[in-house]
Amino acid sequence: MRMRTALPLGIMMLGVVGLVLAGVSSLSPNEELGKAIFFDDNLSLNRNQACAACNAPEVGFTGPLSHINDTGSVYEGSVAGRFGARKPPAASYATPSPIFHFVIDHKEPLFIGGNFWDGRATGDKLGNPAADQAQGPFLNPVEQALTDNACVVYRVCDLANGYPVSFQSVWGMAACDIAWPMDVETTCATEGMMVMLSPADRSKVDVAYDQVALSIAEYEDSAEVNAYSSKYDAVLAGTAQFTKAEKSGFNVFQGKGKCALCHIIDRRANGDPPLLTDYTFDNLGVPRNPDNPVYNVDPGFVDYGLGGFLATLGDVYQPMVEDNLGKHKVPTLRNVFKAR
């Protein structure tokens, strides 16, 4: 098994140059649609929270509020007083994560890929972990808190929502050809209520909801989100040099700190820039954070991470649960300097 250690402060010397949203190549229609959905506050129970609330571009597409990041690190959802249990993972550089799987490494299973900290957005549903992940927050009661995926589709299909690219123009007019009931607005504004649809229209909703997620993933895979604009990229390209302090940190990072065992610093096999993660999972022994508001609701909460997810799967995974308790996804270190 690979020996790994906690991250040293020298990592900060990989400081990311600002994510530049202006001046990048224009987005495709599907990317534009995904961006509009990503930033739409209306896609929440109280029409007050977008995906971008917890995945803001100015901080590398993760939580943007420094006073929260310095304490509990978890964010309030659409319903006041409700919080998630984990810091939002970055949406940037999430799309290269492979479909969740394991390999045998030194006679032990080593899990790789998926999205969310515990890997539960496996990619098995839509063939893309980022798309699987995109469907979660809309219906999570402590996040965007809609009860029914039909409410997401209804609001995305609304031509009055001001999207620069309509859902219908990307996915076809049939995508929104759904007989909505007269009370759909009231239903979608009421927690616990399901939209009454025929079986045929419910099937259309499910297809459209998958398309919503695929559009979000398309945007998250764009050059606007995955900019590869760090100083480290410039150093690799030979257009910049580390300062003395940065070089010292980098030496620790790839040397005795052993950070580079998991936060891979080499270019990928196809020549693309490094992702600064290997998309595996680790338990670093970090103690519970007393500032996390989850303990106000559940004082006995324990985050079992990957092991907790494996426990929900079939019998073949049950022998692997104990060894993976408390393990969480190795995050990319791209843009980490911005999320403070």
What is the first-to-last residue Cα distance? 32 Å
The low-confidence parts are: 1-25
Principal-axis shape: globular
**C-alpha-based Rg, rounded:** 21 Å
Discrete helix count? 11
Beta-strand fraction estimate: under 5%
Question: Please, what is the average pLDDT?
Answer: 92
Question: Approximately how much helix is present in the residues?
Answer: 25-40%
The major beta sheet can be summarized as:
2 strands, antiparallel
What do you see in this structure?
The protein is built from eleven helices and four strands; from the N terminus they run H-H-E-E-H-H-H-H-H-H-H-E-H-H-E. The protein is mostly helical and 340 residues long. Strands 1-2 form a two-stranded antiparallel sheet. It has a two-stranded antiparallel ribbon with strand order 3-4. Strand 1 (101-105) and strand 2 form a beta hairpin. The chain is globular and about 65 Å long. Residues 1-25 have low confidence and may be disordered.
Summarize the structure.
By secondary structure, the chain is mainly α.
Q: How are the secondary structure elements laid out?
A:
Layout: H1 29-38, H2 66-69, E1 101-105, E2 108-112, H3 129-134, H4 149-157, H5 167-171, H6 184-188, H7 199-220, H8 231-236, H9 244-254, E3 281-282, H10 294-297, H11 305-310, E4 328-329
Antiparallel strand pairs: 1-2, 3-4
Helix pairs in contact: 1-7, 4-7
